[in-house]
Amino acid sequence: MIRIVIVLAAASGLNYIAWRWLASVNWESWWIAVPLILAETYSLIDSLLFGIAAWRIRERGEPPAPPGTGFTVDVFVTTYNEPVELVVRTAQAALDISYPHTTWILDDGDRDEVRAAAEELGIGVITRSADWVDRPRHAKAGNLNNALLATEGEFVLVLDADQVPDRRILDRTLGYFKDPLVALVQTPQWFENVPDSDPLGSQAPLFYGPIQQSKDGWNAAFFCGSNAILRREALMQLGISRYVAEVEQSVYRAITTSKRLLARAREEAQGDRRVTLAIRRAAEIVETARAEIIRGDGISDVTYRFQRGIDLIASDYADSEIALMRDNLRELAALSNEPDAFASIDAAALELLARRDTSPVAAIEAISLLTKALDVDRGDEAQAIMPMATISVTEDMATSMRLHGLGWRSVYHQEILASGLAPEDLETMLGQRLRWAQGTMQVFFRENPLLQRRLSPGQRLMYFGTMWSYFSGFPALVYVTAPVLCLAFGVIPVTAYSLDFFARFIPFLVLNQLLFWVVAAGRPTWRGAQYSLALFPVWIESVTSAFKNVFLGQPLGFRVTSKTRVEGGRPRWDLVKPQLFVMGALVVALLVVGIRIAVGQAEGIAPYVNIVWVIYDLAVFSIIIRAVLYRGPAATTKETS
Amino acid sequence: MTSIDVREADGGVVLAPSGRLTVVTAPELRTTVAERITAGDKIIVVDLSGTEFVDSSGLGALVSCLKSARQAGGDLRLVAPTEQVAMVLRMTNLDRILQPRASVADALNG
């Protein structure tokens, strides 16, 4: 049944878009006609990806029975700045999980109150080891990576601080791991503090449901950061393979760029003989390293010999420096009355100058860069092994994509086994959505799934599909602009709003809605549809900021989601200015077209098509008003009771 | 269980973990190596001829130890892995970085 609808929806969509491209773009108004047809093409691709995914939708039903005992499990409750009561509530429930396990609080805030509360519960607290001082912390990914090296269970259940687990969560999921290739079991995230009307669109019934089930059918259900169980062996294997790949990359890059680097340094030395000599010797040992790598020597050995070579240059350089200094000191001593005054300086200075990082050779930037890159210790990172991906502020998706790349399997288990807390105010909600979208876009720009050779074609499309949907901000902008232009100024981007148009557009629209409806199988979808259009400024910002972050190295301006309501009272209209502006424009357009029709200036069917369109847009955007006025779940319960 | 045999040698120290080097026994290796580094040993040789099995956490421990040894100005070298261990090293490509030597003497001599 679903497959028939998928085929029909795809056929009608392709038919419509082909006609739009070939026969109905109004080139006279190309500046809006082209964006519109591009936006429509975007939506068609979105719908095709949705259809391809749903082709294999997989409902797993009852899970396999868990092994009696014998699996060892660590339960991680991750926290950074959430209120202690919240953490304790989750930790207590984690402790009560029925399958044998060890519970840990991963307190990235390293708070005494958390430690005291944990002690009372009799559970361990893991905080960052000394290795993390002055090194990138990598937020939650770093927190988890640190804990993975401090614990030893075969499986790890990850819970956000607000996600209170059901006692049966392990009993219902561990059975999947009897398949030795399963690395991940993800269960839904569901929020208890959300009224049925869900004004902030917190619940994701479509995502934690048919969408993940669709991906599951392609072995591409992905990790969502919480309420998931992971196989340690898979994570550690991922950590090792990433370590190898990154060291190799760094070493190869250093060797291939060394010539240019050293040549530039030689120029900058401007004839300083000692510096030139050091650079020439460095070039020689890089050359040796290159030859050794080509020969197939282990990178560890090659880099070790390289580092020793640099040390030798550094100590020779230091020797000559010392000789120079000694002469100076002797002259100074001759002037001084106390003959021994400078004797002790000598030894300490020698030691300092000969050390790799403080020697004057390190001041030759090219050499110090090469020394850092041609090494196997990943000295810039706290841990050599980083199982959780650190390329994105949302470590989860990137990690599972890499696990799939190594040939591991994932499972999506459709049963609510934890209940969490969603943001209760607009500002927090917007921050959270922006972070998710930015994280997804970072992965898109850094490790584009379409280019991952080790993923199957289906898996590539599944990851790509999720990322594609986050580009919706740009078409959304077109979808609100085009009808306004048409109604207010009579600019018509489509040449024929005629029978031709309706004969193609209506089937596409209807079949797509039908597909959506069949796949959703009774779940509410309207809220999600509203937000995917109405949060267009968030989606656009996520793409632009992630682009700048990945390619220009600019910071994202990342915030941790606060789990509790920010008290403040006043509705925050300022947070949704672009949306209010759009709504204003839509209303004005309606008024203008009313006048134009009344005076007989607007003719034909185009205005009426666009009036319907504007009314639809307004219905979509109306959620923004409700979101701004939303006073939290407590207020809603009072209103309805 | 693993027990780690520690033997002083000319030019370094030889650690020989016997049995299984896994998530359970990896911390022991890490602590032993950390102790030797603090004691001033530079070249740490890990003799794998008595190690029957290693998992990814065991490999992770070897990499962590390599990192600590290098940061202390020393080095860590692997020697004579058994068949299973050699296979895991190959599978993860870790042998491209840590290429095992045939004998302890080889490892100590450069």
Describe this protein's structure:
The complex is a heterodimer of chains A (641) and B (110). In chain A, helix 2 packs across helix 15 and helix 8 packs antiparallel against helix 9 (299-335). In chain A, 58% of the residues lie in helices and 6% in strands. Chain A contains 21 helices and nine strands. Chain A has helices spanning 2-23, 30-55, 84-95, 112-121, 139-148, 207-217, 232-269, 273-295, 299-335, 343-354, 365-373, 395-405, 426-446, 457-469, 473-489, 499-520, 526-534, 536-552, 577-598, 606-629, 633-640; strands spanning 73-79, 102-107, 124-126, 155-160, 164-165, 182-186, 228-231, 409-412, 418-419. Chain A folds into three domains: 2-57 and 467-554 and 572-640, no CATH class; 73-240 and 385-455, Alpha-Beta Complex (Spore Coat Polysaccharide Biosynthesis Protein SpsA, Chain A); 247-373, no CATH class. Residues 637-641 of chain A have low confidence and may be disordered. In chain A, helix 3 links the parallel strand 1 and strand 2. Chain B is α/β, with parallel strands linked by helices. Chain B has four helices and five strands, in the order ββαββαβαα. The longest helix of chain B is centred in the middle third of the chain and has 16 residues, at 56-71. Chain B has one domain (3-108): Transcription Regulator spoIIAA (2-Layer Sandwich), CATH 3.30.750. The termini of chain B are far apart. In chain B, helix 1 (26-38) packs parallel to helix 2 (56-71). The radius of gyration of chain B is 12 Å and the shape is globular. In chain B, strand 2 (12-21), helix 1 (26-38) and strand 3 form a beta-alpha-beta unit. Chain B has helices spanning 26-38, 56-71, 83-91, 104-108, and strands at 3-9, 12-21, 43-47, 51-54, 75-79. In chain B, 39% of the residues lie in helices and 28% in strands. In chain B, strands 1, 2, 3, 4 and 5 form a five-stranded mixed sheet that branches. Chain A binds chain B through residues 149, 152, 154, 232-233, 235-237, 239-241, 243-245, 247-248, 297-301, 304, 307, 356, 375-379, 383-385, and chain B through 23-24, 26-27, 55-57, 59-60, 63-64, 66-67, 70-71, 73, 75-77, 92-99.
